[in-house]
Amino acid sequence: MFVHEQEADTPVATMPGVMRHSIESAVESARTALSLGIRSVILFGIPDAKDALGGGAYDEDGVIQRATRAIKAALPELTVIADTCLCEYTDHGHCGPLCEVGDGQWTVDNDPTLELLARTAVSQARAGADVVAPSAMMDGQVAAIRAGLDEAGFGHVPVMSYAVKYASAYYGPFRDAAGSTPSVGDRASYQMDPAGGYREALREARLDVAEGADYLMVKPALAYLDVLKLLRDEFDLPLVTYNVSGEYALVKAAAQLGFMDERRTVLETLTGMRRAGADAIITYHALDAARWLAGGPVTP
């Protein structure tokens, strides 16, 4: 769920059926999810103000911190996962503070970002997050977050690592929803090359396991089911895949044009992810899929 600081919900134009929720609305949407048998939600924050260091991510009164406290107060049995990144909070749209690498080129300054990611994770755990999910793809981020959580007394909070995250065209609608399109450069310097091959995927996952990851994630899902299967065969940690915004938007658009049966397409797609080895699936189709599986109607 996307949560912003406004009092009214606003629709995401590129993701039909998805909203930027107020905190009050996020609580009600979480309540609906739980009533449908969905036992966890993942939160992405959209602050009113952004800055070069992404300060809203680790603000104790930040939008995700407040949303987490509100959801846990109303629904203590629901698992709240907090996306642990800075890209929604920086004014340049990257996943950490920038440094110039020459010839007018910029990239994220890896090591200073680790400290900010650890601060973010601790702040989210202090607010009540049950799981933190680092998605910045910084070298050493799992170790830094694990150490920060342990030192702050949150050794019981697991780390769901975006271990294998590609520089994908499928993220476009998410960046529209979160206002996180980079203003300079792109994220290809720290996300993975789609043509990078299996060795890179295994290397990234092994590093995160060695640093203390409790879950591994492959993102996106559909174009990388072979990578998902590879990790399933290699590791015994819980494996997550993220059915990302572009994958969602393609199905929604085709269904609205009458080109595809939405229900059958979504359930077939999610079944394929499960068959490839996913123990859990993050998807914007979740509420509709739960209703379909229960035999109920989909929301318009």
TrEMBL record:
Q: What organism, scientifically named, is this protein from?
A: Deinococcus gobiensis (strain DSM 21396 / JCM 16679 / CGMCC 1.7299 / I-0)
UniProt: Zn(2+) binding residues:
C85, C87, C95
Record's catalysed reaction(s): 2 5-aminolevulinate = porphobilinogen + 2 H2O + H(+)
* Chain residues that bind 5-aminolevulinate 2: S245, Y284
Q: Which residues bind 5-aminolevulinate 1?
A: R175, R187
| Positions with a binding annotation for Mg(2+) | E204
Reply yes or no: does the keyword Ribonucleoprotein apply. Answer: no
List the pathway annotation: Porphyrin-containing compound metabolism; protoporphyrin-IX biosynthesis; coproporphyrinogen-III from 5-aminolevulinate: step 1/4
Query: Under what name is this protein listed?
Result: Delta-aminolevulinic acid dehydratase
Q: What is its EC number?
A: 4.2.1.24
Q: Which PANTHER family match?
A: DELTA-AMINOLEVULINIC ACID DEHYDRATASE
What InterPro entries has UniProt attached to this entry?
Answer: ALAD, ALAD_AS, Aldolase_TIM
